[in-house]
Amino acid sequence: MKKLLAAAVALASTCFACGIASAHDPDRFVINRDAVFPFATLPDGVRFPEGLAANPATGDIFVATFDSGSPNKVMRFSPSGRLSAIRDFGATPLLGLDFDTQHRKLYILNFGASKLQRLPANFNAQTPVEDVATIPAIGAPAARIAANPDGSVDTINFGSSNFPAPNAMTFSRSGAVYVSDSFQGAIFRIDDVAHCRMPCAVVTVSHDPLLATAGFPPFGANGVALNDDESQLFVANTGDNHVLKLDLSTGAITVFAESIHGADGVVADGSGRLWVAANQGDEIIGLNETGRVVARLGEFKGIARDGSPIGLLFPASPVVLGDWIYVTNLALPLTGNPNEWEADVRRWNVVRVRLPRR
């Protein structure tokens, strides 16, 4: 009897880790805290990996750092996780990366310089960096009016020093790039980015109070991803713990998903699911087409002997390549409190998460 009971418990645990079927939803709910595997450790002294992109043709992974205290780098890793190139960017912190597969160019959002830049895929330490566009200063969006349960309202007035803060980007099939601005609460677009005359024109797509935040971490519009027919742009708002949906034909913005703790980078997997890096929850969350949470992957499991995170710690940017979601562990201390696990990190890494089948 004890053996039968033990077998039943083991089977139930296994099924829970694999997925729980719902009678009302074709998606299984998947929870797998052991889905995270090491990919690459950054060189000693290179800190805070944030931006991430992949070259599907070669399997190369590109990583950029967001470091206000040490020189920033863009790195290229082989499919096996070996460092094959590194380009120094000096003191200006870097954020989002994306890869133009048609023209084999890596695009870089230089947060410190408020610019979109690019490098060829086969860059080396001396390759010149091209300045593609400068993100304009447009200031804060209008005040946000938030309703309360008692019928009263709150008015949130956003401040701005007019510093453009480009954070994340995504390509459309037409060759346009959509760029989020975390401090100005905006989405910009640069058309035909591969061929536009530099400095390329930057169009404001949306400047909306829902794209700003008064929350923590103090970053509003962050990760961006297009839906399959490119009619909608999903936008993470980190400080508000939201994923938003921007209708590109009407300009309307609605909340697509809530309570994602530190919603950071987002990526679509081609099957209709959207994957969100919850940088304060230390997990990757999967959303279906309605915004329902259908997966929770990974967790923080401590600090390894070499000082690197085990599992996920402040996961920032995800990218899908094959059957994996690659993720940067930014592991950035934000409060100055030594109780933060991020304060104990001495080596930084990139991990990969097994993508559940649908």
Question: Helices and strands in order, then pairings?
Answer:
Blueprint lengths: L1 H17 L1 E3 L2 E8 L3 E6 L7 E7 L4 E6 L6 E6 L5 E8 L3 E7 L4 E6 L4 E6 L9 E5 L9 E4 L5 E4 L9 E6 L5 E5 L4 E5 L12 E5 L13 E6 L5 E6 L4 E6 L5 E5 L5 E6 L5 E5 L4 E5 L5 E5 L2 E4 L5 E3 L3 E7 L2 E6 L19 E6 L4
Parallel strand pairs: 2-25
Antiparallel strand pairs: 1-2, 3-30, 4-5, 5-6, 6-7, 8-9, 9-10, 10-11, 12-13, 14-15, 15-16, 16-17, 18-19, 19-20, 20-21, 22-23, 23-24, 24-25, 26-27, 28-29, 29-30
Beta-strand proportion: over 45%
**Structural class by secondary-structure content:** mainly beta
Bulk shape: globular
Helix content: under 10%
Which whole number gives the mean pLDDT?
A: 93
What's the number of helices? 1
Intertermini distance: 36 Å
Number of strands: 30
Uncertain residue segments: 1-18, 20-24
Main β-sheet description: 6 strands, mixed
What value does the Rg take, in angstroms? 20 Å
What is the topology, as strand order, of the major beta sheet? Answer: 1-2-25-24-23-22
Give an overview of the whole structure:
The protein has 358 residues and is mainly beta. The chain is built from one helix and 30 strands. The protein has one helix at 2-18, and strands spanning 20-22, 25-32, 36-41, 49-55, 60-65, 72-77, 83-90, 94-100, 105-110, 115-120, 130-134, 144-147, 153-156, 166-171, 177-181, 186-190, 203-207, 221-226, 232-237, 242-247, 253-257, 263-268, 274-278, 283-287, 293-297, 300-303, 309-311, 315-321, 324-329, 349-354. A six-stranded mixed beta sheet has the order 1-2-25-24-23-22. A four-stranded antiparallel beta sheet has the order 3-30-29-28, with no helix packed on it. The longest helix has 17 residues, at 2-18. The chain is globular, with a radius of gyration of 20 Å. 43% of the residues are buried.
